[in-house]
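Weekly puzzle thread! Below is a chain. First person to post its structure in token form gets bragging rights.
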Amino acid sequence: MEHVFNYIIVFLAGTACGSFFYTLALRYISGEIAENPIKAFLGRSQCPCCKEQIGVLYLVPLLGYFLSKGKCPDCGCRISPLYPLWEVIYGALALAVFKFFGFGLFPLSIFVLCSVSICIAIVDFHTFIIPDSLVLVFFIVSLYPVFLQGQWLNNIAGLAFLSVFFLLIMLIFPGAFGGGDLKFFAASGFFFGLEESIVLLEVALITGAVVGSLWGIMKKKGLRVKIPFAPFIAWGIVVTIFFGRHILLWYYTLIY
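Winning reply:
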């Protein structure tokens, strides 16, 4: 019974974080962060239609959306179901981190890294911009798990590998990737180190190529279609965090 209680608490905490990070992403998208960062970080949530502040009860993750029936209590404007959806996704992410890594500062840092990555992906999906401030947060948070591992040369090698790789790609194929992609990959490479950076690179490139090709076919633009790449980097980060070592072991069995 205690385990069930722990899972419930972790899930609810994850949904609260999901509410924060999705709202943060929306404020980056709307430009509020650029206009007034302090107000954007500390200000209460408002209805996108009437601009009235949303009551505290309606801000409770999941419960608030269903109590309001998906509408603003003041003007009746429809509230996007993406709010509870992202809360559930972050709740599931928190459960996965808890299942794989348990409690503690290290699992918390892993959850924050995944959360920031998803936030970056949402912003890039809507704006084709990767905020430097979020990449900086990712890098700063990664310092703790990197410090625990104590393999600084490996982490620097990961940063150098992904930085040089994408810098060459950007020089050979101008416009294929942006500076934000390069910075995000570099910070990720520092966190993972050299070997797991290769896994991240493969996951991001393969999924990006598959989704991009399908999207180009749907839009009848072929390979000329441009898509944001941060979602694939974020996907690669999450997959590598949970399964990177298993994938590497599988590679080693194939080679040796």
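Puzzle host: Confirmed. Bonus trivia for everyone else. DSSP finds eleven helices and no strands in the chain.
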